[in-house]
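Problem: given the chain below (240 residues), write out its structure.
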Amino acid sequence: MVYNWENSSAEVNMFVHHLLDSTKDILDDKLIGFYIHGSLAMGGFNPSKSDIDILVVTTDSLSMEIKKRLLKLFLECSNNPFPAEVTFLNEGQLKEWKYPTPFDFHYSEHWRKKYEEGAAFVSDMPKEDPDLAAHITIVNHRGICLWGRSIDKVFPAVPKSHYLASILFDYEDCLKNIELNPVYCTLNLVRVYCYLKEEKITSKQEAGKWGLSHLPQAFHSTRPYNKLSQLMQARSRILL
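Solution.
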């Protein structure tokens, strides 16, 4: 069973509001807004597999002390019981739009090991992320403002060329890792193809349904028979 924010469980609701309340306590008057994107906003959220995707916007850049407090919060809460992926940006970074997009702090389970090995990674983390152009585009089209200023008052319109560059960056990564995570990567590839064909911004669930109604029958099976080689051969056609 998959969900969105409106019909999600009390457990999901309590978890997200705990993150919101804890973030408000840490940031105090620096907090502009707390926004949900990804599967929980668009639909297709699977409580046993999906991340809870969050963007947080602040008035100013964050001090190292605040970053360490945020790190403690997400190390304790993420994966307990749901994994969280959250990025903190400040108002200036959004007003002076750049691609790849700069940010102040990021947490995801992908980075947990580096954080646990030493808090020094907080200061050494990357300073910009090409994925943010896609995340902000999704927030603009399908996101949810859980607290703070409305989405249209906070986030800029992302140029289509930057959104496309962002999803193609993810596309290339999926081609490399499809055998490690075939479901996620296959649906992401279809999502990119859907946007290239129709400029539709879809969830992975919506992309899967679109693929079943638009792709040749040979691509419908979930059996892993030479699927990677088929997708690699189709790559040049998809990018046209």
